[in-house]
Amino acid sequence: MIQVLGKPSSINVRKVLWTCVEIGEPFVQESWGSGFRSTDAAQFKALNPNAMVPVIRDGDFTLWESNTICRYLAAKHGRADLLPRDAAARAKVEQWMDWQATELNNAWRYAFMALVRQSTLHPDAHAVTASVAGWNRHMGILDDQLSKTGPYVCGPEFTLADIVLALSVNRWLMTPMTRPAYAALAAYMELLRQREGFRLHCANGSP
């Protein structure tokens, strides 16, 4: 049984927990991070020198970086539906996973820290406005993709890309700000609500 180290409200931890539900991987979750055991502790930094969650321990094997963990779990269980074996199809899934981790995350970071976390380190109203605009623009890119490929991001089948992106859409929807009404995104989230992993680890009250 794998160990998942990280607090269950973390968006990146929830990617891993949802993936475990999809593949039927039993796990034990240990809460690390703000409000719980400190990731700056030597015990944790020995597992991940970046002092970030999540980390998994699978026997003697330790791994960090949430999207990489999701890919590892799918590959370990031979889940070609979640992570295709065909090189081109797999690259498309990984393309959207990487976009979520880089382009999309960078767009929302300032707005989320200011509007949800109420961070005193993010007081600039102009920066918040710019971040919201960038965030909405990136959501428009995803909405356009879904309107072309739906019902899922990479076509007719649910993949790992949908896990990581659905959590980002959930964060966008739960942040108190003005946002466009994107029809394809709304239909996408309604479809995903049918999945147990979504109900447990995406629609769990955490942005």
UniProtKB/TrEMBL annotation:
<protein>
    <submittedName>
        <fullName>Glutathione S-transferase</fullName>
    </submittedName>
</protein>
<feature type="domain" description="GST C-terminal">
    <location>
        <begin position="86"/>
        <end position="207"/>
    </location>
</feature>
<dbReference type="GO" id="GO:0016740">
    <property type="term" value="F:transferase activity"/>
</dbReference>
<keyword id="KW-0808">Transferase</keyword>
<dbReference type="InterPro" id="IPR040079">
    <property type="entry name" value="Glutathione_S-Trfase"/>
</dbReference>
<dbReference type="Pfam" id="PF13410">
    <property type="entry name" value="GST_C_2"/>
</dbReference>
<dbReference type="InterPro" id="IPR004045">
    <property type="entry name" value="Glutathione_S-Trfase_N"/>
</dbReference>
<dbReference type="Pfam" id="PF13409">
    <property type="entry name" value="GST_N_2"/>
</dbReference>
<dbReference type="InterPro" id="IPR010987">
    <property type="entry name" value="Glutathione-S-Trfase_C-like"/>
</dbReference>
<dbReference type="InterPro" id="IPR036282">
    <property type="entry name" value="Glutathione-S-Trfase_C_sf"/>
</dbReference>
<comment type="similarity">
    <text>Belongs to the GST superfamily.</text>
</comment>
<feature type="domain" description="GST N-terminal">
    <location>
        <begin position="1"/>
        <end position="81"/>
    </location>
</feature>
<dbReference type="InterPro" id="IPR036249">
    <property type="entry name" value="Thioredoxin-like_sf"/>
</dbReference>
